[in-house]
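Researcher: Structure prediction, please.
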Amino acid sequence: MKSRRKPAKKQLTDEQIDDIVESQGDDDSAWEKPIQVRRAKPGSVSLPPELAARVAFLAKLHREKNVGDWLTRVIKERVELEEVAFTEAKREMSLRNGV
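Model: Predicted structure follows.
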């Protein structure tokens, strides 16, 4: 038994969307209840003094003016490496399991 496809919805152009929004702009019933969005608070990490001193030394060694910027770059690089390693491990496991 073949399933019937739903007819594709007509894609609106940006101009058509703008016209709809402008026509409904003053009609409160056309809009959902407003939602509150808050910016995430920046996180902080405590480092033991000895590690903080080592971080500061290495940031200077790399000619980074801001220790936080250097640390952010190092963490990003490490996270990317970990993600690649994780993806590779998952791929190898799936190949071994014949998936």
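Model: The two ends are 29 Å apart (CA to CA).
Researcher: Thanks, that helps.
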